[in-house]
Amino acid sequence: MQHVWSKILFNAISPESMLHVNAAISGEEIVVLNVQELEKKSAEGLKEHLEPLVGVTKFRQRLFLEDNDREIEFHDDAETQNIQLVILPFWTPDVEHEQDIITACAIDDVQTLQVFLEKPLDPNLRISFDDALKGWCLLCLANSYSSPRCVHLLVLAGVEVQHLCRGGRPCGT
């Protein structure tokens, strides 16, 4: 499932347009950049550009126009875009959702996993409700089921690959 922000393109915005990105809560300026500085001319591209600046992946970021309660939409006629960045806390799944996440990792269903990561789900989640898999991290689960696309998506979402997983062995092995 694609969100609105992942479909919005900047192509209609003037090349001279400036993006002013501020933290929504504090108002602190994060960055001012020309649209042409973005590798991908989309809201997703802007989020990827912000990742190293704010220290969180695109999955936890939400972008809003100033004084607007809907996710970002860029206007064709705007010379300047004032954008508010909201960083969401991680979402905690219930039993049913955890089972859906396990299934997605087991069958390499990257679309379903992405929906959960966008809630946003902590990519370092440990399975807690399924007795057979209790303590497993999502990376080990996806790796053990030979789900390379899910492994790749978890890496993009910032999963810690250097921690120890169930049984004290390195994660992902």
Describe this structure in words.
The protein has two domains: 4-87, Roll (Ubiquitin-like (UB roll)), CATH 3.10.20; 95-168, Serine Threonine Protein Phosphatase 5, Tetratricopeptide repeat (Alpha Horseshoe). A four-stranded mixed sheet has the order 2-1-4-3. The chain is elongated, with a radius of gyration of 18 Å. α3 (95-106) packs across α4 (110-117) and α5 (138-144) runs antiparallel to α6. Helix content is 30%, strand content 14%. The protein has six helices and four strands; from the N terminus they run αββαββαααα. β1 and β2 (29-34) form a beta hairpin. With 173 residues, it is an alpha+beta fold.
The arrangement of helices and strands along the chain is: HEEHEEHHHH
Report mean pLDDT, rounded to a whole number: 82
Helix content: 25-40%
Per DSSP E runs of 2 or more residues, the count of β-strands stands at 4
Rg, nearest Å: 18 Å
Number of domains: 2
End-to-end Cα distance, whole Å, is 30 Å
- Uncertain segments are 1-13
| Tally of DSSP helical segments | 6
The shape, in one word, is: elongated
**Order of neighbouring strands in the sheet with most strands:** 2-1-4-3
- Biggest β-sheet strands, sense, barrel: 4 strands, mixed
Question: What descriptive keywords fit this protein?
Answer:
Serine Threonine Protein Phosphatase 5, Tetratricopeptide repeat, 173 residues, alpha+beta, Ubiquitin-like (UB roll), 4-stranded mixed beta sheet
Summarize the structure.
Helices cover 30% and strands 14% of the residues. It has 173 residues and is α+β, with helices and mostly antiparallel strands.
